[in-house]
UniProtKB/TrEMBL annotation:
This is ROK family transcriptional regulator. The lineage of its organism: Bacteria, Bacillati, Actinomycetota, Actinomycetes, Kitasatosporales. Belongs to the ROK (NagC/XylR) family. It comes from Streptomyces noursei (Streptomyces albulus). InterPro entries: ATPase_NBD, ROK, ROK_cs. It comes from the Bacteria.
Length: 318
């Protein structure tokens, strides 16, 4: 039997998605359950088990070579444990052991969700063909991952590239992580909305005070809304420029709900990048929207598993 598939799990605060993914990144079989995020850890794990059993019941399961898991973080890939901020029942939860018990002899690889999204964008999306890339998810939080020298760089614990908690404002607001002035504290959706409200922006008659509503107001020319997105773009630019200066990336890919704001975010971001990425070796740096959409998590978990198990079939195209 040809083993040309990866089994992939994408575990987030609202949904547990699973898929069998082929060597071209196509989803051959899908399964999903809502995440019972407000329940105890064993209940959440039962939902994971239902997804794995549904995948394993497919005849294609016999072709699976490896299992990849992308999880909301923090994760500890070395220990095989996860402590997702948005799943309180899981703290140092032994997710890899739990999945291994369901998946038999297959190797299991765990990475953070930002690293998984990066693997997907590098394999099939906006970072394809780039040997050195930073990919980011800007949403409720800000996460990310790195491709260096043509390979995904998850780091020892599976969290490398977590740009959301680089400080870009030395004396800035305290961040829930314990530091100050983090990229996430300025550029995440809730913080874009928070800053707009604090500076006098008010939602419309529908009461929608989300970052998407701020983006709509910015597109209509609201100066406070525009200014909140400018500040977010500036924070992202400073973090991207720092990353480029450290490890010489030539592209930054931005996905997540806030990236859906489009030019309202990307225009000030690119302008600010010219202010921060000034040295000759980073001056060619480009910033583009992500391409992989909602399947990025499972496609990326599959790519991470395949890289770990060195399947030639999964080597990203040049
Ligand atoms: Zn932080």
């Amino acid at each position: 039997m040809q083993t040309d598939l990866s089994a992939a799990l994408d575990i987030g605060g609202t949904k547990i998605a699973g898929a069998l993914v082929d060597a071209q990144g196509r989803l051959v079989v899908r399964a999903a359950r809502p995440t019972p995020a407000d329940q105890d850890g064993a209940t959440v794990m039962r939902a994971v088990a239902e997804v794995v059993r549904e995948l394993a019941a497919a005849p294609e399961w016999a072709r699976v070579a490896a299992v990849g898991i992308g999880s909301a973080g923090p994760v500890d890939a070395a220990a095989g444990t996860v402590s997702p901020v948005n799943i309180p029942g899981w703290r140092d939860f032994p997710l890899v052991a739990g999945v291994r018990a369901l998946a038999g002899e297959l190797p299991v690889t765990l990475v953070g969700d930002g690293v998984a999204m990066t693997a997907a964008e590098h394999w099939q999306g906006a970072a394809r063909g780039h040997d050195n890339a930073l990919c980011m998810v800007v949403s409720t939080g800000v996460g990310g991952g790195l491709v260096l020298d043509g390979r995904l760089h998850p780091g020892p614990s599976g969290n490398a590239g977590h740009i959301g908690h680089i400080s870009v404002d030395l004396d800035g607001d305290p961040c829930p992580c314990g530091a100050r002035g983090c990229v996430e504290r300025i550029a995440s959706g809730p913080n874009i909305a928070r800053r707009a409200l604090a500076n006098g922006w008010r939602p419309g008659p529908d009461g929608d005070a989300s970052a998407a509503a701020v983006a709509a107001a910015a597109r209509a020319g609201d100066p406070v809304a525009l200014s909140s997105f400018e500040r977010a773009g500036q924070a992202l630019a400073a973090g991207i420029a720092a990353t480029a200066t450290l490890v010489e990336i030539d592209i930054a890919v931005i996905g997540g709900g806030v990236a859906g704001a489009g030019d309202v975010l990307f225009d000030p971001l690119r302008t600010a990048l010219r202010d921060y990425a000034t040295l000759s070796f980073v001056s060619g740096l480009t910033v583009v929207p992500a391409q992989m959409g909602t399947d990025a998590g499972v496609v990326g978990a599959a790519a991470a598993a395949a890289q770990r198990s060195r399947l030639d079939a999964f080597t990203p195209a040049p």
